[in-house]
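Chain X:
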Amino acid sequence: MRYIVTLFWGIILGQVAGFLIGALSGASYDPATSAIVSVVFVLILFTLPAIMNHYTPKPAKAKSDDQ
């Protein structure tokens, strides 16, 4: 459920950002392009934690004093 909510708000915020960028740069607003870019960005954000956890250093095991 949380992924659907994140995807929904990512698309909404992508549309707002696309409109503002288009208005400030003088370009025309294209909702399809804004939606595609925002979905790709949200999908990257979904996969980023898994990639970062893969490269997290594992804690070193304690050596015993019995040796």
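Chain Y:
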Amino acid sequence: MADLDGDIADMGFDELGYDSLALLELSARIKQTLGIEVPEGDMRTPGGTVRLINDMASGKDA
């Protein structure tokens, strides 16, 4: 189990205990909430996912 008291932004989702089903659900929630389609294969870390979403929302190529 990962130590969640520190900075987890750049820890891998697998290190945090996320499996492929959890990432699939996260991807679906992002699409439902923000209208942005992020393939679960592109989500590697929480911080990277946030940066990817911000880039997509601002129209930048990710």
